[in-house]
Amino acid sequence: TTSRRLADRKIERFEKNITKRGAVPETVVKKGDDYPVGPLLLGFFVFVVIGSSLFQIIRTATGGGL
């Protein structure tokens, strides 16, 4: 019957998907080389952290560290 053929086709597609699990193509897998933040934002963060620490050292050395 028609409904049995449709059911068999659905089962076949389902089983085909089950056997394909874990077989992801190499291009789809995300590479771990990319940074979560951009290099510009990272440079700005380093500039702020190092700049503020240098400013604090200079301020403490001149006697205004209170």
UniProtKB/TrEMBL annotation:
GO terms for cellular component: endoplasmic reticulum membrane. It is found in: Endoplasmic reticulum membrane. Pfam families: RAMP4. GO terms for biological process: endoplasmic reticulum unfolded protein response. The keyword Membrane applies. InterPro entries: ER_stress-assoc (IPR010580). Keywords: Endoplasmic reticulum, Membrane, Transmembrane, Transmembrane helix. The chain crosses the membrane at residues 40-58. It is a single-pass membrane protein. Belongs to the RAMP4 family. This is Stress-associated endoplasmic reticulum protein. It comes from Escallonia rubra. The lineage of its organism: Eukaryota, Viridiplantae, Streptophyta, Embryophyta, Tracheophyta.
